[in-house]
Amino acid sequence: MxxxxxxxxVAPERKLASEEAAVEVMVPGAxxxxxxxxxxxPMLTTLRPGKLTMVTRSETQSYAVxxxxxxxxxxxxxxxxxxxxxxxxxxxxxxxxxIEEARRVHDEAHPSVADMTAKxxxxxxxxGSHMLS
Amino acid sequence: MPSLKDLKNRIGSVKNTRKITKAMQMxxxxxxxxxxxxxxxxxxxxxxxxxxxxxxxxxxxxxxxxPRLLSGTGSDKVQLLVVMTAERGLCGGFNAxxxxxxxxTADKLLAEGKEVKILTVGKKGRDxxxxxxxxxxxxxxxxxDVKRLSYDDAQKIARDLIGRFDKGEFDVATIFxxxxxxxxxxxxxxxxxxxxxxxxxxxxxxxxxxYDYEPSxxxxxxxxxxxxxxxxxxxxxxxxxxxxxxxxxxAMDSATRNAGDMIDKLTIEYNRTRQAAITKELIxxxxxxxxx
Lengths: 133, 292
Known about the structure:
The complex is a heterodimer of chains A (about 130) and B (about 290).
Chain A: E1 5-10, E2 15-29, E3 32-36, E4 43-47, E5 50-56, E6 60-65, E7 68-73, E8 76-81, E9 84-86, H1 92-108, H2 114-132
Parallel strand pairs in A: 1-8
Antiparallel strand pairs in A: 1-2, 2-3, 2-5, 4-7, 5-6, 6-9, 7-8
Helix pairs in contact in A: 1-2
Chain B: H1 4-60, H2 68-71, E1 78-84, H3 94-111, E2 115-121, H4 123-133, E3 137-141, H5 151-166, E4 172-180, E5 186-194, E6 212-214, H6 217-291
Parallel strand pairs in B: 1-2, 1-4, 2-3
Antiparallel strand pairs in B: 4-5
């Protein structure tokens, strides 16, 4: 069994990363964080806002994602992110803007989806503490 | 016979026109490159999205509880045409071709007794269709303030569409846009986006992998389908952007060339007229001298 896998991170407007030799990838799945390693069972999961970390033998790279989904196969993982930024580009201003947006959505939301938007807002806020510390 | 001065003015004005069309061509060329890059950058996402959706859709197809965005309302009575054109003209047949395709489709649907609704994106399409189909218009999306097309713009349109769909305003939605093939060829295209039809690409087998789904298959699909709609609209908008600039570039190129030809013709005429005037004066002087 191969001990590395293919990792792709694409957003609608650009391709952020394509790495052939990822050792492990930590993904903020909708039902909880999960770590993907080579040979993982095929799986589709949606993402919540959070921090995504990719580890190769030589380096570790983090990205902020605001949602989307991930397709996992034994050979690799493809993350289709709604919006995504490398950790270096994720500043306080960006974060504040995201929170503001999530809050607006939450305030305007229909009561039936209020739980969902509240979770989104909480995830957005948590994203800051993960990314900016 | 125009006077020398008239001709000179004429040549001057055509020269100015040529300068403008030349400048527009160059601007379009620069914008085209950017538009192409944007379309290129968006491709990996769209392709992945497509293959995942195709796999998911085929596994859910035919089930009773399939989401309505995928299975449709079971009727095709009310058809929504989303006509995407440019905000600006002077780009050859670009807008006219899209409008023509939309018009043909609308006529066909009306002849079949269907109800037609039209949503326009871009000013030019609205202007072209307003006279004949104004009564079917249900909305317009203005993108004239948008400098660089972003996914958010597409998402807004998609949300609007899905909102209308959920309210039962239409059964089938088709988008009209132009696929960018090359600078000289843009193909007006109609594509049905609601209910979504994800056919596997030709020659490409969709591997039927048995995925684990988290949270659940239906929930994922419900989450993904609106995204699929937004992605398709985004792709269409980008293709359209590249097509528009390509069409404008070749239109301005031929306009520049035409202006050049016209200047040549006018210059010849100008020289002839000048010669004729000189000859006439000489004849007058000589015959005056002979008369003495």
